[in-house]
Amino acid sequence: MLLTVLAAVACRKITPEEQIAQIAKYFEQNTDSYAEDLSRHEGGKRLDYLTLTLAKDLQADDIWTLEHAGENSLIAEFPGSERKQTQFSLLSASLEDPEACAAVLQTLHAFKDLKIKPKGTIRAIFYNPVTDTTGRSGLSALAKEFDETGELVTFQIEVSSRDSIPVHTFRIEDNPVFVNQFMEVVPPYLTPLGTYQFERGRFMNKQWPVHATLYRYHLDPSDLPKESAVITAFAFLVN
Predict the structure, then answer these.
(1) What digits encode the pLDDT tens for the residues 103-113?
(2) Tag placement on the chain: N or C end, fewer CB within 10 Å?
(3) What share of the chain is helix, strand, coil (3-state, %, to 5)?
(4) 131 touches 65 (CB < 8 A)
């Protein structure tokens, strides 16, 4: 009888509230270990640091670069439990924003350490924001490549410490009906982590290169552990 009870407890599915509590505790015990190193490196050296971290520390399934306007963007893939070769979500940051890049790495590290396995495949994108003569950036070049290969981006989480939206704010850019439902369901889960704002964005935002549901978050670079916790919890929920 005892073995049956223990087996049932071991197999019990963790609730979203319990998982978010674990995420909060994880970041209380794990301070940022990436932002300072990323800030010390620039250009190709920052790209090298990211590549080594993604390969060694985070054990990405695949890593590659895409050259555009003489600069490289970096992509790392982390398969989900349901492998759909043509569908994936994006977790992105500009290579010129070391704090945002650090938050993406911390999110991926938390997923690994806490054994959070999302259903869908995640691609971490560290893109070159420089535009060419046509106005196309590294992110738009990546979006073009995904389109040409027939791959579908289900949604994108864009992390920035320099966004035009207010700090501690999520902006959701999607169909208004979906956004209304999202506003009712998701924000309450994040309440234990702090006070965050949620606002509706433009639909469709033709100025954004990736044509998919877009979640933008403006983080506070002075409190990266707490910010990484909310980004991780948000990524867990939407994945």
Answers:
(1) 999 999 999 99
(2) N
(3) 45, 20, 35
(4) no
Judged on CB neighbours under 10 Å (0-12, 13-18, 19+), 164 is exposed
Q: Is the separation of the CB atoms in 137 and 129 below 8 Å?
A: yes
- Predicted confidence at residue 131, as pLDDT, reads 84
How do beta strands 122-127 and 71-78 pair? antiparallel
Confidence (pLDDT) at 227: 96
pLDDT by residue (tens digit) across 90-138? 999 999 999 999 999 999 999 999 999 888 899 999 999 988 767 789 9
Q: What are the structure tokens assigned to 134, written together? A: 């046509």
E-strand ranges in 47-161 read 62-68, 71-78, 87-94, 122-127, 152-160
Of 239, 235, 213, which Cα lies nearest the Cα of 104?
235
Residue written as token pair 């979906």: 178
Contact 194, 230 (CB under 8 A): yes
d(CA 129, CA 11): 45
Q: What is the DSSP letter of 79?
A: -
